[in-house]
Design goal:
heterodimer; A: alpha+beta; four-stranded antiparallel β-sheet; B: four-stranded antiparallel β-sheet; exosome (chain B); ExoRNase_PH_dom2 (chain B); cytoplasm (chain B); ExoRNase_PH_dom1 (chain B)
Chain lengths: 297, 287
């Protein structure tokens, strides 16, 4: 946890925030933060930069875009357009779950826990294949404006669709796998982070999958395409492109596009996403390998 | 729907591979589309669309409301879809809820465009009456009466036709009032404004069965699909929304190919739909 220069200044204020809350979640989160600081699972060398999955920009340079468009957008956190936020991924965040993962991509912090395969209480009928139950919820303090911490039905169904194509359901008939995602802080590209973190949690739980899935989103503002948008950019975007893919198999499992896109823009966005997804896939694999080797010791 | 036997499955897949589907169509041919507008007199606009065995009704109701504080210069649009149990017995009670919310989400994505409003089929600023105080709230409801595949395309066409048929009454805002009070509004009974639907996109769903894609799949063909991509293209040829359904992964080049096929199909579909809608409107005017 304390291995990137972004993270250290932020953690003390976060502990203070939790002390003020009278939320039953508070104790759970305090214990969790203590456990993260105690076992330094992400055993990167101190001083090494947190890995990021920024894609490689192929072909032409980015400069012509700035000249053409009248809207000169500069990213609030000073990143370049094809640059993603540094990614922090950890498994084993929740000890009571079969598998869990914690992901921090800039200001977006998500924790996912997986329970199962366990007995399906809802379904009485026998089924040859297992069932998947997904739930994405936001905490009340996730966004800057005070919102209700309700379940996000839209994101829950999209997470379900993203995961159902990649989990081998035949390996756990009659049982259910529950995936619960909690967005602790919403800093942009929430669903992409939730999906990537969920697939890491499933791998940690030992559920059989065809491949890890990674999700990346691209925002279009004017003529500029920016990857991994933050909340500000998402609020005024002209279009959004979210892609979930299996990096090793080079297949797209879910694709959601809103706003107006020309075909060359879609091509470019797709290339950016595929490149970023494969790099994120490698970072996720490294994280799993480290967790596995740490538990071996 | 009764499941297909192994022989029937092979027949469907083999036919698609040879560009001859079970009802004799080619892979990129639509079933005959029948449009009827003004079917619900109490609604501001309504339409009924039949594509083969799929029958849907869309209605548009406009009500006076307050703009949201985040976007005080825009009206609001809400899309709700209801899958009636008359279409499928499984749709009764909570059964059709998942499908309804999926369809509503896809339609909302196609109609409303990006957060800044770019690529929106409906111009939300045209729904504004007084900034920050009064605006029109459009409630677009879709009802699926009979389902034989390709629900999203049918609903998209029905909403487009219903919006063309929509007449919103003219509103006069009387007297300037203080900032914190609601202004008085006078809704006229006589004068109506027609909606501008030239930028409403059409939705084309390409279903991948085996190695080929088909347009306008029937329920049988949909049961054999590996995945489906619904692409919404507007008159200018820009993509206004894209949703991939189905669990199987697709190669990125396949998706790009599907986009170009969808654009090609949209040209014929849009002109066909426009002619059908104007014929239906003319029919309604006569009666």
């Amino acid at each position: 946890m304390f291995n990137g220069e972004f993270l250290l200044p932020r953690s003390p204020p976060r502990l203070l925030l939790f002390f003020r809350l009278s939320n039953p979640l508070r104790t759970q989160i305090l214990i969790f933060i203590k456990s993260l600081s105690a076992q330094n699972k992400m055993s990167a060398k101190p001083g090494a930069a947190t890995p990021t999955y920024s894609p490689k920009v192929v072909g032409r340079s980015r400069l012509p875009i700035f000249k053409d468009s009248d809207l000169d957008w500069s990213r609030p956190d000073g990143r370049g357009f094809p640059q993603c936020r540094p990614a922090l991924l950890q498994t084993g965040a929740v000890s009571s779950a079969s598998g869990s993962a914690y992901a921090e991509f800039g200001n977006t912090k998500v924790i996912v826990s997986v329970f199962g395969p366990r007995e399906s209480k809802k379904a009485m009928t026998y089924s040859d294949v297992g069932r998947l139950n997904c739930n994405v919820s936001y905490t009340t303090f996730a966004s800057p404006t005070l919102g209700q911490g309700t379940d996000h039905k839209e994101f829950s169904s999209m997470l379900h669709k993203a995961l159902e194509g990649v989990i081998m359901m035949e390996t756990f008939p009659k049982t259910t796998v529950d995936v619960f995602a909690l967005v602790l802080e919403s800093g942009g590209s929430d669903l992409s982070v939730v999906i990537s973190c969920a697939s890491l949690a499933l791998a940690d739980a030992g559920i059989m999958m065809y491949d890890l899935i990674t999700a990346v989103s691209v925002s279009c503002i004017g003529k500029n395409l920016m990857i991994d948008p933050v909340t500000e950019e998402e609020g005024c975007e002209d279009g959004s492109f979210m892609m979930t893919c299996m990096p090793s198999r080079y297949e797209v499992t879910q694709l959601t596009v809103t706003g107006e896109w020309t075909t060359p823009n879609i091509n470019e966005a797709m290339q950016l996403c595929l490149d970023a997804c494969s790099k994120l896939g490698e970072i996720m694999r490294d994280c799993l390998k480290q967790a596995a080797s740490a538990s071996d010791e | 729907m009764v499941g297909l036997s192994i022989g029937e499955q092979h027949f469907v897949k083999g036919g698609i591979a040879q560009d001859l589907r079970t009802d004799g169509r080619k892979r990129l041919t639509y079933r005959p589309i029948y449009v009827e507008t003004g079917v619900i007199p109490q609604a501001n606009g309504s339409a009924r669309v039949k594509i083969g065995g799929t029958d849907v009704i869309a209605s548009v109701k406009a009500e006076i409301g307050r703009p949201s504080s985040l976007q005080p210069d825009k009206g609001k649009v809400a899309v709700f879809i209801d899958c009636s149990p008359t279409a499928e017995p499984t749709f009764g009670g909570r059964g059709g809820e998942e499908l309804s919310s999926e369809l509503a989400l896809a339609l909302q994505r196609c109609l409303l465009g990006g957060k800044s409003g770019a690529g929106a089929g409906i111009n939300l600023s045209s729904l504004l009456i007084k900034e920050g105080k009064v605006c029109w709230d459009l409630y677009i409801d879709g009802l699926v009466i009979s389902s034989d595949g390709n629900l999203l395309d049918a609903l998209g066409a029905a909403i487009k036709a219903a919006l063309t048929n929509t007449a919103i009454p003219k509103v006069n805002v009387s007297a300037e009032v203080a900032d914190d009070e609601q202004p008085e509004i006078d809704i006229s009974d006589e004068e109506y404004l027609q909606f501008d639907t030239s930028s409403v996109p059409v939705i084309v769903t390409l279903t991948k069965v085996g190695m080929h894609y088909i347009v306008d799949a029937t329920a049988e063909e949909e049961s054999q699909m590996s995945s489906a991509v619904s692409i919404s293209v507007n008159r200018v040829g820009h993509i206004c929304g894209l949703t991939k359904r189905g669990g199987c992964g697709l190669d990125p080049s396949v998706i790009l190919d599907m986009i170009s096929v969808a654009k090609h199909v949209t040209e014929t579909l849009m002109s066909k739909l426009d002619s059908e809608i104007s014929a239906a409107e003319a029919c309604e005017d006569e009666s």
